[in-house]
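Let us work through a complete example step by step.
Step 1: write down the sequence.
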Amino acid sequence: MRRALRDLGFWLLVAAIAVFALFPFYYAVLTSLRSGTDLFRVAYLPNALDLSNYVALFERQSFGRNILNSVLVAGSVVALSLLAGVTAAYAFGRIAFRGRKLLLVTVLCVSMFPQVAVLSGMFELIRALGLYNTLPGLILANLMLTLPFTVWVLTTFMRELPREIEESAYVDGATPWITIRRIFLPLMAPAMVTTGLLSFVVAWNEFLFALTFTLTDEQRLVPVAIALMSGSSGYELPWGAIMAASVIVTVPVVALVLVFQRHIVAGLTAGAVKG
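Step 2: predict the structure and record it as tokens.
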């Protein structure tokens, strides 16, 4: 009886946490299916399937282009972060050189500064390189946010791998690059999926750099496009369109988490238990 009550209390707690976490997204979907004065009426069940907000979102502004920009920027940031992170992790985790700890701490210190503290310096750098109002400029700016975390996580994971695997590859005549590509990359897949997904979320949701380093609608990313939507012409009541846009940009992140959830759990728990 006591165990049954304990199990019941556990599942009630799980249900309460699930409702608390999912209700905002559910209500956003519900609001996106309303229009006119129905937006201000409190209701928790849909009355009709009204997709006018989604249609207006792509007809009245270049939201499709904004989504494509975000996909290109976030995808490029993930690819570059993982490429630089894996090579840096191999250097920090496997090669002994003078100043290694100091350099690794310096990489970590980069992530300690808030965005607003480096905004002016990053703006001058972007402008000097001729990358203002371009997607490569946003990619370069976002790398400052994702690279330190990626390097630290992959370096920690690299140190946990047994050195006997690497030594066996060298005995067989493998070069360091072949060892990284054929030996370490398959073993580091869980950690790379975890860091890659977190880097994607950071680049996908980043707002300050995307707002500062872009000027035209054609180069804006979805967070900025949604923020400026309330001031755009053509929307008498923009809240339904804003909710529709929020739902659209949230679905890819949720889908990625569901697809790679096993790798995410394995990457987060790697190294936690040693046998």
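Step 3: interpret the result. Residues 63-94 form the longest helix (32 residues).
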